[in-house]
Amino acid sequence: MAGGGTVGSRSRTAGSATTSGLDPEQLEAVLAPRGPVCVLAGAGTGKTRTITRRIAHLVESGQVNPEQVLAVTFTARAAAEMRERLSALGISGPGNQVVAQTFHAAAMRQLRYFWPMAMGDVRWELLEHKFRMVGRVSRELGLDVSDRDLLRDLASEIEWAKSSGIGPGQYMAAALEAHRDVPTDPRTVAQVFSAYEAAKVAPNGDRLLDFEDLLIFTTTILQSDPSIAEEFRSRYRSFVVDEYQDVTPIQQNLLDAWLGGRDDITVVGDANQTIYSFTGATPTYLLDFTRRYREATLVRLQRDYRSTPQVVDLANTAISQARGRAAGTRLTLIGQRADGPKPIFAGFDDDVSEVVGVVAQIKRLIRTGVKSSEIAVLYRINAQSEQYEEALSDAGIDYQVRGAQSFFDRPEIAAGMRRLISLAQGAPPPMQPVDAVRHALRSVGLTEAEPQGANARSRWQQLLRLMEIVEAIAAEAPALDFEGLVRKLDERSRMRHAPVGGGVTLSSMHAAKGLEWDAVFLTGLHEGSMPLGRASKTTDEVEEERRLFYVGITRAREHLHLSWSLSRGEGRSSKRRRSRFLESLMPEKPRLEAAAGPMPERSEPDPDVYKAMSKWREDYAKSEGISPVNVMSVSMIRSIAVAVPSSIEELKKVRGFGSERAELIGRQILEVVDSALPGGVGTGKTAGRK
Fold first, then answer.
1. Region 446-475: what's the mean pLDDT?
2. Contacts of 172 (CB under 8 A, 6+ apart)
3. Closest Cα partner for 107 from 251, 267, 261, 312?
4. Distance of CA 452 to CAs 149, 153, 447, 455, Å?
């Protein structure tokens, strides 16, 4: 195994700046012998600090020259942070340079250098985007190229297949085995894939290379040309891989080609944070590391310096329910910070109530001194951001949307708005205003049924949210015609508080990985959203959703708020259930919140009373020619179904009901409640309970 003189190196560096301030496990990883080292690093345990210190130790102790170290990670931001830390340690500057790059940047650099040696006069150019090429070959195959979502989904499938080391001929079987959410039939995807690969090769042999090709061709050249491989391996002798749980098969192939049978490699990862399997990433290489390298040093970093013990305990409990092979390597985090507030669990009647409750809690935190820039609202899908954008804007709280555009700036929403505004300027459509809007949005992707394919479905979800906004506007002002409805919608988009560089962060849970805030709100934690309905067909898919939930929890330093709602919106039936991931975490009596703040703890509503009251509200609203929400809110129906009042006085105590409403409809409500209870009307049950 590579490396020697380790004992002497330990004694020379034990008191240096490189090793000072480390906990015992971090120090063990930093001082591990040169050779295969696997660091299992939990969230908040200081993994970047540890691996940069390890590189510094290897250099300072003379075990490796800085120019011989290649450190790779998955994002340019992470690579930049690694370079900055190495520079602060004095080992990454002019003439003393450790290379820290993404896999693709490293491969591109190597390919530009070695390509002429391996390929002669054949030239290559980088194909930065697959979309146009996929569109061209799809047109030639007779597909509908006006469907841009289909083209994006085809490009995504090609990217997944290539990242997984799967060629066109293997795609159909592989997609079936992986339960891929294909945008069209697998045979068609395979045909497009094959045509795409052929179209990148010019008649004279020149090539277009996409980002996956950078890795594939670099690997092929190193494997097929011994002289090139020898030159590369004489330059780079020590390798470090960050976020190793996210490696794809073609990235691992490249890493193997770099190593060439050597074992001077340090990998850092956490199988509990594997959340990108849909892109081809797999924790298998991390899980198999100590089997592959029998003499490897294995270090577990479990001291969490990020989060309070209350957040850490919740995270540990959440991930302790995991199943499958990755669960066997789980890390149990040990909180190192002082105690903080207990996580808050908040259930709401509908999405609107949840948003209002979350924003009310954000206001409280800001009033207590928490900076808005240290607060994040996380959700499973980007379409969930719109309500928070509007509510924060109305509250005068700055925000920024991470990983996606603001709702009304998203291409599908902008296209839908242009369509509606154009129609509003012409002859009025011969149908009800809301129906006219729904009909108009069909042309930009609002189909009756949820479409196949990730990009098409994302577009559909955004447009569905736009339609819900239209319905809400119409409910508030039922006299509006089509033109007036569109005008109100346009005003709403224009009045939206413009996102700024700071403020509350709105982000999907995927986009939040690697980040942290003082306060985190995990929202929409109901079945169908967490876990996502389409991503819970198999045990593996459910477990990936559980890991995503775990990642969300571990973003919080101090304040953690977990919320869910029982229905999509006002007036809709309560068909949701809170997420299965919450069951092992819930206190005996979760706090339920409303717009004004914490509500008293309460039991579940009587389902028969709730159903009867909901039907009565619909019938009453229809008979009076008004909107059901103007009769009473869903929250009020739920409160009545919990209280099961037997008298006018008890009914008046229901929050928000009041004497005026009791005088107008109180007796009718008591009759509905009585008829819904066992025994029904005529048994004297209500009278007996007075």
1. 81
2. 186, 187, 189, 190
3. 251
4. 10, 9, 11, 9
